[in-house]
Amino acid sequence: MAGLERLERRLGQAVERFERVEARLGAATDGAEITKLSQEHAELKPLADAIAALNTARSELADLEAMTRETTDRDMKAMIEAELGEVRDRLPDLERAALLLLVPKDDDESASAILEIRAGTGGEEAALFAGDLLRMYQRYASRQGWRFELEDVSETGIGGMKEVIASVSGKGVFGRLRFESGVHRVQRVPETEAGGRIHTSAATVAVLPQPEGDVDVVIDDKDIRIDTMRSSGAGGQHVNKTDSAVRITHLPTGIVVVSQLKSQHQNRIQAMSVLKAKLYDLERSKRDAARAAERKGQIGSGDRSERIRTYNFPQGRVTDHRINLTVYNLPEVIDGALDPILDALSAEDQARKLAALEDET
């Protein structure tokens, strides 16, 4: 009961804060203050609207309950009780919607992302699977209206991918794709297998938030070494004869990034962008590790050492092991229909965060 009272108090405090921001926004004249208040107002408004809808329903409930006690007419009482039932059915969803908006959001929820795919165990079949994952994410990005740009590709001889780095730009990319970080396993008969035996191989996926501007990550010039070299990927004579590829080494951490698909100037810009994303993710990982130590067993921790999903081609199924979800539409998933899986992961993540919020209060 005390926990519920604290949650209610937090809802009330959120409404009070929204009203103060709204009042101040109407009186502010300084441009910087107006910008800051406008951003906070936009962030708080969905919560304020959800609380208003909840309070309206609660008021209706109280009025209807009073009317049932005061009404003696049988038909009128039946009508009121029917309406009362509808309001009672709506209340849990309205309460949950308001409480979920109280859950602190990931600072990078709306950020663009760097996507890295690497072939794991399984030799050439793992590289082919990495290529399948690349196409899956390209198609999903197209469905979402995101911009998908390849930044570095290391191919194998028969169409597989040893390593791929891509930039995915758009609103909410990281918030949507962050659940994809981890080991993806495939079970199928390889094209190179004459005996028809099912092989198991794997590829790893990493999704890193792309920090906006220079405010999040500052890189000192003395901490990096920049080398230019000839591109090693496919691309004809230009690739082989021009020292356009750029490799940047971050000396304090040993992180190395390479960009070799554009001009030297563009490659340098892109390599710095990827390096910033990696350093930013390193700091995020430290914070996440500290939080995870306090809350064991959380779903969707993003630990890339764990197997998160299996794609079984003979049975046409995809299983996400974090939430024990299995769907039997593997061809559609590989074609970019990831929303059902991502929706389920997001719902589980929200439930975990809500439970943590209730525990904290």
What would a concise description of this structure say?
By secondary structure, this protein is α+β, with helices and mostly antiparallel strands. Helices cover 51% and strands 20% of the residues. The protein folds into 2 domains: 2-102; 113-294 and 301-354, Alpha-Beta Plaits.
Radius of gyration: 26 Å
Indicate the low-confidence ranges by residue numbers.
234-241, 294-305
- Characterize the largest beta sheet: strand count, sense, and whether it forms a barrel: 8 strands, mixed
How are helices and strands ordered from N to C? Answer: HHHEHEEHEEEHEEHEEEHH
Q: Report the sheet-strand fraction.
A: 15-25%
**Alpha carbon gap, first and last residue:** 11 Å
Number of strands: 11
H/I helix tally: 9
Instruction: Determine the fraction of residues in helical runs and give it as a percent range.
Output: 40-55%
Name the CATH class of the largest domain.
Alpha Beta
Say what the CATH topology of the largest domain is. Answer: Alpha-Beta Plaits
> How many domains, as an integer?
2
Mean pLDDT: 82
Which structural category fits the helices and strands? alpha+beta
Net shape = flat
Enumerate the strands of the largest sheet in spatial order, edge to edge or round the barrel. 2-3-1-5-4-9-10-11
CATH architecture level-2 label of the largest domain = 2-Layer Sandwich
Could you please describe the fold and organization of this structure?
- The protein has helices spanning 2-27, 31-70, 74-102, 123-144, 173-177, 237-241, 264-294, 330-334, 339-360, and strands at residues 113-119, 147-155, 161-169, 182-188, 199-209, 224-229, 245-250, 255-259, 307-312, 317-320, 325-327.
- The N and C termini lie close together (11 Å).
- The strands form 2 sheets. The chain has an 8-stranded mixed sheet with strand order 2-3-1-5-4-9-10-11, with helices on both faces.
- Helix 1 crosses helix 2 (31-70) and helix 2 packs antiparallel against helix 3.
- Strand 2 and strand 3 form a beta hairpin.
- With 361 residues, the protein is of the alpha+beta class.
- The chain contains 9 helices and 11 strands.
- The protein has 2 domains: 2-102; 113-294 and 301-354, 2-Layer Sandwich (Alpha-Beta Plaits), CATH 3.30.70.
